[in-house]
Amino acid sequence: MAKRVAIVATGQTEHAANRWDATGGELIGEAVRRALEDGGLRREDIDGVIVGNMDHFEGINGVEHWSIDANGGLLKPVLKLTTGGTTGSTLAVAGYHLVASGLFERLLVVGWEKNSESDTTGAITTAFDPVWDRLVFAGAVSGLAVEASVYMRRFGVTEKDAARAAVRDRRHALNNPHAHLRKEISVSHVLDSPMLADPIKALDMCPRSDGACAVVYASEDAAEKICPRPAWILATATRHLYSYLGDVQLYPLKSLEAASGEAYRKAGIREPRKEIDVMELYTPYSFANLSWMEALGLAGPGQAARLIWDGATDMGGELPVNPSGGVLSTNPIGATGLIRAAECALQIMGRAGARQVPDVQVALSTGFGGCMWSDLLIYGRHKPA
Amino acid sequence: MADINRLNRRDVLVFASGGAFQPYRYSVGRAGSRFLTELRDHGRFLGLRCPGCGRVYVPPRPVCGPCYRKMEEWAEVGPLGTLTAFTVLRFAFIDPETGLKKPVPYGYGFIRLDGADTDLQHFLRIDPKRPPKIGMRLRPVFEKERCGRLSDIRHFEREDTP
Amino acid sequence: MERVAVIGVAQTVFEARKEAETYADLVYEVADQALKDAGMDISELGNIVTASNDFLDGRTISSMAVGDAAGAAFGGGLNISTVEGDGAFAAFYGLSRILSGGYSTTLVTAHSKSSEGNPLLISNACFDPVYERALGLDFISAAALQARVYMERRGLSERDLAEVVRLNRAKGVLNPHAQVRREISISEVLASKPLAPPIRELDAGPLSDGAAAVILAGEDFARRRCSNPVWIEGVSLCADARMTDRQLWESAALRKAAQAAYGMAGIANPSDEIDVAEIYAAFSYQEPLWLEELGLGAMDKSRVNPSGGCLCAHALVSAGLVRVIEAVLQLRGKAANPAPEPRRALAHAQSGICGQSHCVWILGKN
After folding, report:
1. Least CB-CB distance to A195: which of B90, B110, B123?
2. pTM here?
């Protein structure tokens, strides 16, 4: 019989542009140690470890083995997962399945990246096809810029609308001691920042960070012994729809539309805007905070800007989004999707500190990456039936 | 001995891998080879049509993802097309193909060749007097010497460029 | 554990260089064949787990290249994930996605084309950049260190290891998927070019281009749809310390993985209860080493690697999944070189330098 599964402990490093004080292994160790301490667990209590990052950002092949001393997996089952930007959310989904299977009772899940060790845009460019894509492709920014160009053209959405969405995330980050960028910005700061790829300016775009995140998953047999109010996993869904960037339908984000449809159905959610209390979205640039809300069914086509200007997604609003400051404030790529999961778990546990949304019953996190792919998880305060 | 937790940034070493790189010989595949050969020898564009949904794929590949059917029927597309999305790249980054900084700015376009159902990505020539617009008509400009790579097309430009 | 079966298998022919195909082409070939082997239409498929290695494929997120080919875009899109490591490890994750109640079936694919990159440089990237890489360590020179230590410990000669090669190559002649299908003599092995002493060219499995796929199914689906399901009786994996931090003549990780898998399958005396074993031995010395740690040291050699093993085709990332496939074919009675009436088979896979991780599968007919 499949087991119900919860997140019972989390640990994050301090994220920064350059964690010059730590090697990749030490970053992993820092997150793992904090997660174990958070759950009052020892390494011996863990049945297995899964690790994820993107190989070419540090240039290390087989990091699960290279980091064995740090990741806690010595003489335990260890798996490595990699799906690009979705790596962290792929890890979060894998943690669920591996524990639900009954094969593991307490599983440690670790995502990390030390982006300062290479040229991130160059490394992301090698994600795309050597024959067809690499000639013109320029990493995440170029792909997202064309998406934004289509969204703006279709609905008359402005760069100012997007700037407001960036301001929200950066303001939220002030409440998060782990966040990489903790400086408030204004709409005019965003609009005046250097143009990277039209219409994306520097402050529309996520940073690249060094950091790691570790999360402990437990089955229903162990969860409440470790954490009195664990975050139960209600649903997961994944859509890695495209292999070629030129195939992508640029609005709406099909992968997120399909993944959220599946996850809402699995979790029995009919009105996401009313039934979900908080979201941690992998929105790597400001425009995603608009158009992807529409893919999630939270606003009609072209209507998301209204939601943002009204403050509905601010702290204290109807549906706070990215209380952690989101990806625009912190982005150690292989950890980024897992940080979303950890932040949702903290919200459910009621342990999110200054960034806590009151009385969270249901939370949702997403992952984004690859060729406009999406992963999605829904978490609940109550053990699922 | 200094406590390692009190090291200053200037005391911490960085080990640079220098010019180390991994060389590859990527197979283009049968479908892609036909496409690039046609382009090189005749300046013609070919797509593959799905027997299920009828969509024409450029660049061609053997399987239609959504139908999961093998594709074998060639269809000539282009050479003219429509701009479906674009940006202008303005920041410098290391081009993994050359190891050098990519020259910027450059126009980056998604081009829907006439008769195709997917987009080809390529350089977009920017005319400063007439900025690009989604929906504008484009034509390819070929290199004189062609060698069977996508860069045999220099860029796409407005169809009515004098 | 709820019962899960292998209901479909496929592998390409393994070759030194498949010039005409991309690795996505290879994945489509095996995914399509595995579905046919299972008698399934893709519309019945629950989910997908692919295996790949970004360094080998020369691409960050190389899983992206094979998504369409594996079926990720089918219909409104199927749930998919990717394990970096051998396909047998990906199959372990694929199994968990059935046991979790998430899906009734999982397609698992694995691919590699070593011919496109430089496997020595690629495996050099497994070593620590600060302390180890400049020494020129790669998967062959590291294996040579392990081979030397193991040979000294067990008093094995180069001739003993050449005999391992001779036996595997003789079996591989019968395997239509093998890359090398020619019998060789002990003296040919001993006369072959030294790569990194004591490892000679013929002590090393020939690196191959190719792909493999399996379809796993939960009990309901398997019983309803499959006339010859092969049941998973036990499976486990375990990771060891880095090669500099452990004794190379043994493998605590393999012992642990084997004990766990045997425990799940209720096996007390592996050499009596396992009828055929497919072992991922990338080099001749690895076969006796891994067999010893599996408790199968005394197993009759006719029951070990009847496919010819990795000494006849060594496709990185796929090779472990191929061991699972060959074990399934044995139990179906469809192997090219059948062991006598096998009821239970073991498939072994490794990942990392000098077998840092191991994965053990116990498969049965009942």
Report:
1. B90
2. 0.97
